[in-house]
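Researcher: Quick test of sequence recovery. Tokens follow.
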């Protein structure tokens, strides 16, 4: 009898959820969890793992040392779109296919970006704080020059599933939408612009691209300075693409009139960080993609892809160029 595949699931996905997902596999697979749930527990559990479900919070990263410890590892499934908690190069060199959950939260994140743009344009959070504090800042809101979203030129940096869906939603509102990505999409309904030109033509800039060595610091102080005076920034991508300090400086200079940030250089955002007290910033705890619909999509995708690996079928969404047929070590 063939030994069961050993699936090592990293936090923060709850144990009972993971067990339920793979119960239909019966004796073909067994699920394990690091004990304790720390670095030492991870390194101790990896040598017996055939499949790893990654940690989207990045607290237990699969770095080069972890990859070396995973002698039997045949497949890694990230329960997220981003793979910055993995040493993808080390996994590729070890012949381990890595799959992400591309598209699972595209609609949810795109809706958050549109909602954040509304909140910034109409100063919703600022007005809410004033009323809760006992004030009635009606004329102060007028003085802040609220805008209607449809009048704004929207630029989207990154045109994967999230960027494309955000473009569609903004266009449906009547916005003029442009985009930049490394490989222009001839089929895109939006207008392609080179990155610096896009920044110069965007009243609302939406970041929706992965964090890589090439994109880290992509939108720094020099590029923010290209934007129109009083522009708005919406970041649903990753912290580090536009550094927090650069955002603060652009806000203080007036180049940016507001920013909606779901992600930060370091998460959680440090207590006392100046972004926490900035009145022109809408803050979110990396939760743009956490709608119930997105969560159901994610659970289904992880279940189906890992089950396919165990059952000898090809997996989907491999991001490191290896064959989607998972071979047991």
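Model:
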């Amino acid at each position: 009898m063939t030994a069961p595949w050993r699936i090592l699931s990293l936090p923060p996905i709850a144990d009972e959820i993971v067990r339920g997902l793979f119960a239909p596999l019966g004796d073909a697979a067994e699920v394990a969890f690091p004990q304790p749930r720390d670095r030492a527990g991870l390194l101790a559990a990896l040598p017996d793992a055939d499949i790893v479900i990654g940690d989207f919070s990045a607290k237990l990263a699969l770095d080069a040392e972890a990859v070396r410890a995973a002698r039997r590892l045949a497949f890694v499934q990230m329960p997220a779109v981003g793979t910055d908690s993995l040493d993808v190069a080390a996994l590729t060199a070890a012949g381990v296919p890595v799959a992400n959950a591309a598209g699972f939260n595209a609609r949810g994140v795109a809706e958050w970006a549109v909602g954040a743009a509304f909140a910034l344009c109409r100063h919703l959070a600022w007005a809410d704080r004033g009323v809760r504090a006992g004030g009635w800042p009606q004329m102060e809101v007028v003085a802040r020059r609220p805008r209607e979203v449809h009048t704004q030129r929207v630029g989207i940096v990154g045109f994967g599933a999230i960027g494309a869906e955000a473009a569609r939603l903004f266009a449906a509102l009547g916005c003029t939408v442009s985009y930049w990505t490394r490989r222009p999409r001839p089929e895109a309904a939006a207008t392609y612009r080179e990155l610096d030109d896009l920044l110069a033509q965007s009243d609302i800039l939406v970041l929706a691209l992965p964090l890589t060595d090439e994109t880290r610091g992509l939108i720094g102080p020099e590029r923010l300075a290209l934007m129109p005076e009083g522009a708005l920034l919406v970041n649903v991508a990753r912290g580090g693409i536009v550094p927090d300090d650069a955002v603060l400086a652009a806000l203080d200079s007036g180049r940016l009139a507001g920013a909606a940030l779901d992600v930060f250089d370091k998460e959680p955002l440090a207590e006392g960080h100046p972004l926490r007290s900035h009145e022109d910033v809408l803050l979110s705890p990396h939760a743009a993609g956490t709608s119930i619909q997105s969560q159901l999509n994610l659970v289904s995708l992880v279940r189906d892809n890992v089950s396919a690996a165990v059952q000898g079928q090809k997996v989907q969404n491999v991001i490191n160029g290896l064959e989607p047929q998972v071979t047991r070590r």
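The radius of gyration is 22 Å.
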